[in-house]
């Protein structure tokens, strides 16, 4: 397993994330609808809005798993926020970054993952991600739909504003 390196803009990224004042807040319909649509559009059992802070990924919305956070060092989303494009992992069991990850070797047994970076004020604060328990490819149309849903989630994050 490879732990994701810390982004070069980590201080700015965390500042933007904190300014949203959204971590550890209750579930909200708009985010729940977005993950439901993502799971349906990509025909996957699991989808989440994941926000990556210093030590964890925290889920603002989750469909298909009953978990609120995981340690950052095992977070697929911590890898996703390093780039500008979606992170697509068709088969986690053969990907050197993830094949020994506890989320692959034990429950929830992630076998495929796609994550779209969520940007607020040019900072990647988290992801809209979809997970399957089977290895699989994600098509171009599915990635386009996930990008559109991620754009919507970004608007929700901005609209929330400081609480």
Short description:
This protein is α+β, with helices and mostly antiparallel strands. It is built from five helices and six strands. Strands 3-2-1-6-5-4 form a six-stranded antiparallel sheet.
Order of strands, widest sheet: 3-2-1-6-5-4
Tell me the number of helical segments per DSSP (H or I, 4 or more residues long). 5
How many E-type strands?
6
Q: Write down the overall geometry.
A: globular
Order of helices and strands: HHEEEHEHEEH
Portion in strands? 15-25%
Question: Mean pLDDT, rounded to whole units?
Answer: 96
Kindly provide the radius of gyration, computed on alpha-carbon positions and rounded to a whole number of angstroms: 14 Å
Would you mind describing this structure in some detail?
This protein has 163 residues and is an alpha+beta fold. The protein has 5 helices and 6 strands, in the order ααβββαβαββα. It has helices spanning 10-20, 29-41, 76-80, 102-105, 140-160, and strands at 46-52, 56-63, 69-71, 87-89, 112-120, 123-132. Strand 1 and strand 2 form a beta hairpin. The longest helix is centred in the last third of the chain and has 21 residues, at 140-160. It is globular, with a radius of gyration of 14 Å. The termini are far apart. The mean pLDDT is 96.
